[in-house]
Design brief:
Layout: E1 2-6, H1 18-32, E2 36-42, E3 52-66, E4 69-80, E5 83-91, H2 108-125, E6 132-136, H3 143-149, E7 160-165, E8 173-174, H4 177-182, H5 187-190, E9 205-206, H6 207-214, E10 217-220, H7 223-231, H8 239-244, E11 249-251, H9 280-292, E12 302-306, H10 315-327, E13 331-336, H11 341-353, E14 360-364, H12 368-377, E15 380-383, H13 393-399, E16 403-407, H14 410-415, E17 433-435, H15 440-456, H16 458-469, H17 475-490
Parallel strand pairs: 1-2, 1-6, 2-5, 6-7, 7-10, 10-11, 12-13, 12-15, 13-14, 15-16, 16-17
Antiparallel strand pairs: 3-4, 4-5, 8-9
Helix pairs in contact: 1-17, 3-6, 9-12, 10-15, 15-16
Length: about 500
């Protein structure tokens, strides 16, 4: 099949979060499975050009109809590692993608409405006719609308769309100006509840709702999160829209790149190790203690948190996990950056208070090299998220022989199975500890069981960590699921 992915991110060249990792990882896997895969991305001024090979002009003067006029664009082409990417660069006074940031501008809906229009225009005039367009998150939510309401009448009537939602929290809310600018017009037609009008604001359109309504298939990034989106408030107001479109909605679990995340060949891990040769993890543990100046006590477990410090990640429980781990004789390592000033101030105060504690290190920021060493050196990773569409840290942790301690939400439910209580799995397929309530008592119940196993039954704990390493959460299985979806919708 010929597949074109259209997104606002692709790691490592454009990455603000997990979306970039997924777009690259899935594209690479589909290519390995024999499909022809291309990406269309914005050409940001701040992206990592050092990860693009052979960047050159592919289409010199793309004329994109916009707001009653035309914006000229140059389309560049290059390879991001093994994936062929096209980058759209508009030549306009709005400087849509020359702002030094990927997101955060007040006109973000208009910026990405233009990107969506330009992507379709490029496919149209260059005579590219993929079997499937795979669009991601709210930034590309208008593409299904424009394809079926406009471009289907100009030679693109056979293209089908898979639309993936990575985060329901950001939906792309905009007024009538987006319709006028893209040429959709007819606000009386589109501002209907069963089309793209926002469910709660009758004077706004909702990009994500547009994608759900018009796409041929819609999914989020884990089966359990798909259930949550339909039956709880986690869909942020789109529950009824998903109910109306339930026949074409599902969940496909994200994978991770097992080449990038591989303790046998990781350049940041001092001694390679694997499930069959686990002793190298002790070398990584010693190196981590030396790097962060923790007390060199080989008997103590190291508990870690890696990720954003924000409400989604359950920061109130992260703070409690630090002190509970220390009270139980463990060491604790944190690597993460706060998204809000108040959260940052709180953890800065914690860092200052614990600065002289030889069993604790808080690293407020992000460091790719250090993250690999923590995954390799720590024994457990705690993930107390309020919500988690899929989650990658628990899957990476399993790959590196960490035992995850997670709250039972979203994709965490689909990847971590409680050592003591998961009745659907035999003991040899369990890999961590799970709690469900969002309070200190629930967190302590799971952390306590993990620490008890470490202290009282070290050989069993080691076996549990090795079982986790043998789990397969690579892109292989997920890539095949997406390919099946593509094949299904292109024959509809």
């Amino acid at each position: 099949m010929y597949i074109v992915q259209i997104a606002s991110e692709c790691a490592p060249v454009i990455k603000a979060g997990g979306l970039g990792d997924v777009v690259y990882g899935l594209s690479r896997e589909l290519g390995l499975q024999g499909h022809c895969v291309e990406l269309i991305l914005p050409k940001y001024d701040c992206m990592r050009y050092d990860h693009i090979w052979g960047l050159h002009q592919a289409y010199e003067d793309l004329k994109v109809p916009w707001n009653g006029g035309v914006i000229r664009c140059t389309v560049h082409c290059g390879w991001v590692h093994s994936v062929l990417c096209f980058f759209i660069e508009p030549m306009s006074e709005e400087n849509y993608f020359n702002r030094g940031v990927y997101y955060g501008s007040s006109d973000d809906p208009m910026r990405f409405a233009f990107f969506s229009k330009a992507a379709l225009e490029f496919l149209s005039v260059s005579n590219k006719r993929p079997d499937v367009l795979h669009c991601h998150d709210w930034q590309t939510g208008l593409i299904p609308v424009m394809l079926y309401e406009m471009y289907a009448y100009h030679g693109m009537e056979h293209q089908r769309i898979c639309y993936t939602i990575h985060n329901f929290k950001h939906q792309g809310i905009c007024g009538v100006q987006a319709l006028q600018a893209t040429g959709l017009n007819r606000p009386d037609y589109y501002f209907q509840y069963d089309r793209i009008r926002d469910n709660f604001n009758p004077f706004a359109i909702n990009f994500m709702k547009a994608g759900i309504t018009y796409a041929n298939y819609v999914n989020t990034v884990s089966p359990h999160h798909a259930w949550e989106a339909r039956h709880t408030e986690i869909s942020c107001g789109l529950m009824h829209t998903l109910e109306l479109n339930q026949a074409k909605f599902g969940g496909i679990l994200n994978g991770i790149d097992y080449v990038m995340w591989n303790p046998e060949e990781d350049p940041y891990v001092p001694i390679p190790y694997s499930a069959s040769d686990f002793d190298g993890k002790l070398g990584a543990k010693k190196a981590l203690r030396e790097r962060l100046m923790l007390a060199d006590d080989p008997e103590k477990p190291i508990v870690a948190f890696i990720g954003r410090l924000d409400d989604q990640k359950g920061v109130h429980l992260v703070g409690h996990a630090i002190h509970y781990a220390l009270s139980r004789g463990a060491q604790f390592v944190l690597l993460g950056s706060a998204t809000e000033q108040g959260i940052n101030d709180s953890f800065q105060a914690q860092k200052q208070m614990l600065n002289d504690n030889p069993d604790c290190h808080l690293e407020l920021g992000f460091n790719e090299e250090l993250s690999h060493l923590i995954y390799a050196g720590a024994d457990m990773i705690v993930i107390p998220s309020n919500f988690e569409p899929c989650g990658l840290t628990q899957v990476i942790g399993l790959r590196y022989g960490m035992v995850p301690i997670v709250r039972g939400v979203g994709g965490l439910v689909n990847t971590v199975f409680d050592w003591d209580y998961e009745e659907t799995k035999p003991k040899e397929e369990r890999n961590g500890f799970v709690f469900y309530q969002s309070d200190n008592v629930a967190l302590e119940s799971a952390m306590g069981r993990a620490l008890d196993l470490y202290w009282l039954s070290p050989e069993i704990f080691r076996s549990l960590a090795i079982q986790g390493m043998r789990c397969d959460y690579s892109w292989g299985a997920s890539g095949k699921q997406y390919a099946s979806v593509y094949d299904f919708i292109r024959h509809k």
